[in-house]
Design brief:
The structure is a homodimer. By secondary structure, chain A is α/β, with parallel strands linked by helices. The first copy, chain A, has three domains: 56 residues, 434 Repressor (Amino-terminal Domain) (Orthogonal Bundle); 123 residues, Response regulator (Rossmann fold, 3-Layer(aba) Sandwich); 134 residues, Rossmann fold (3-Layer(aba) Sandwich), CATH 3.40.50.2300. The radius of gyration of chain A is 26 Å and the shape is elongated. The interface between A and B is large, with 72 and 72 residues.
Chain lengths: 339, 339
């Protein structure tokens, strides 16, 4: 075994295969590329044995550079610690693999500068498409969108004009949460959300408030509670401090994510407020963990495990030269397991 | 803007830059590669302007193929849905980025065949190093290990001889869990684990049982409960069925992961068993979610967010030609927040 055949150090070359088989490099190259007509069956077999013996793998990157084609797709996600993004990443990886692509996953930590660093690194890697999960506006992203890079935005729409999008109908999800609380005769519902604005937050809050008002409750009777930072757990915990004393807690609250709801619940627990008895909480996401650890939580469930196939469908249609499209994923209400 | 400059479709070539600047391709190539002595300051400036105007990015892959060097490191993880692996992935990504590398993340779904598919795909991508999180024995992996590929194993040691490893001291973690239960005078402790064996499971169970026996409790008074499948949540839920009736529940149980503990807790809740009052549960991992959603859980905390820097340190030392080493990460007991 020569040093050259050590994976990760450098690929075994055609020359190694040629030497092993006792044929010319050109012959090996032709056979590797499927042109076997000019070689005898015996030569083809000898080259195949040599390829196996020395551990040769055709270099996809080399081919990618020659053909201006690769099998790489990059996903840039805002925060892999967030289980929702981990679920989207897992489903996209599976759908891409089935379509013959390898997914590169990058964590931008919700930072525009890191997002641009990764976009530039991926462009240098001859990436074939981009999946932007909860992206931030950034100069580099604007540049990619303007150049027409094949991009699918997930969860948050492109901040720069019309692009392909897969995500929940956040307005409808917020409305569904409002209906759930109002149907339980809660007349001063609260809404809990991050201070830092995103399109997801904005739409879910808007869907909620519009529906509450449409059902005859004055806007000023909606209790709004927001919290700083980027961890939704911490945001929920901080925002619920607005409810200050236990008797001042609302009888029901919509949290714009399940993670925000977990944060609200922690403060409730520490304050002796019984959830859902004293305060009915409805989240959005429908995390699979709810059944295990948050049986008190009602949630508007978004089918994140089904995002992957939709994302790949839109990417393939962009590669085929079709215009951007949107897939709004349907939601359903998952009621609390325990009351 | 020409079609060539569209990211994801094909990189802008040196020729485009040369045409824009009105100089030869060779001149552009020299300047891009930092050889500016032979060109006038005015030419260098004109090329820099042209690079900016056409959106040229030096192609790292092209360089990688020429220099037998890339800036890519692949992580193959058994299950990204598992929050422990997501945390390890996030910390490794951050440490690699600081060291100037881009991490490719692949989800093997704990399947040896997918692990081999990804190893071969990554070799074709001229990957510089491999981080194997909870790997499975597979023919391809054996091949990579035997060829001396730069690999760091995480959480589970290499199934094929001595390799670099970052992970907890599972035996010591199991012992710590045993001490916690025995110190609370629990004399017939249970141990809950997956039926499907892995080195992590084996070591944690062994550390637990050896310590219980060493402290004078006969081996046959340890209650063993296992469950099928790969989801630790489901495994815990199924395994706890061995405790059948509420009065037959043990007074204390060690679960080989926090996720197993969540599963046990769900059955306890459904069966009216109060945790920790009726049954003290100690997990291993110390998930950050425990403080939010599982305040009843005591856990032997493994510092997963600190794995990344250790993994990168071992990779760099392998690249430097040093022999494989092991980093055992220290644990600490995180007591239940609520009793």
């Amino acid at each position: 075994m020569t040093d050259e055949s050590r994976p990760g150090v450098g690929p075994v070359s055609l020359a190694t295969v040629a030497a092993q088989a006792g044929v010319s490099i050109a012959t090996v190259s032709r056979i590797v590329n499927g042109e076997t007509r000019r070689a005898s069956a015996e030569t083809v077999e000898r080259v195949r044995q040599a390829i196996k013996a020395v551990g040769y793998h055709p270099n996809q990157l080399g081919r990618a550079l020659r053909n201006r084609e690769s099998r790489l797709v990059a996903m840039l996600a805002a925060n892999l610690d967030n289980p929702v993004m981990a679920t989207i990443a897992a489903s996209t990886e599976a759908a891409l693999r089935q379509a013959g692509y390898v997914m590169i996953l990058c964590d931008t930590h919700d930072r525009p500068d890191l997002q641009d660093d990764y976009l530039n690194a991926m462009r240098s890697q001859v990436v074939q498409g981009y999946v932007m999960v909860a992206s931030q506006p950034s100069p580099g992203l604007r540049d990619f969108v303007e150049r027409g890079a094949p991009m699918v935005f997930v969860s948050r729409r492109s901040p720069f004009g019309e692009c392909s999008f897969v995500g929940p109908d956040n307005i409808a999800a917020g409305s569904a949460a409002a209906d759930y609380l109002l149907d339980r005769s809660i007349e001063e519902p609260a809404v809990v959300y991050p201070s830092r604005e995103s399109s997801t937050t904005r739409e879910r809050v808007k869907g909620f408030c519009d529906r509450v008002i449409a059902r005859g409750i004055p806007a000023d009777r909606i209790r709004r509670a927001d919290g700083p930072g980027i961890s939704h757990l911490e945001i929920g915990y901080a925002a619920a401090q607005h409810f200050s004393a236990p008797h001042a807690w609302p009888r029901g609250a919509m949290c714009i994510s399940d993670q925000v709801a977990y944060g609200v619940h922690r403060l409730a627990r520490e304050s002796g407020v019984q959830i859902p008895h004293d305060c009915e909480i409805v989240g959005i996401d429908g995390s699979p963990l709810n059944a295990w650890l948050a049986p008190w939580l009602t949630s508007v469930e978004i089918p994140h495990p089904e995002f992957g196939p939709s994302i790949v469908e839109l990417l393939v249609s962009l590669w085929g030269g079709e215009p951007p499209r949107e897939h709004l994923m349907p939601h359903r209400l998952a009621a609390a397991l325990e009351r």
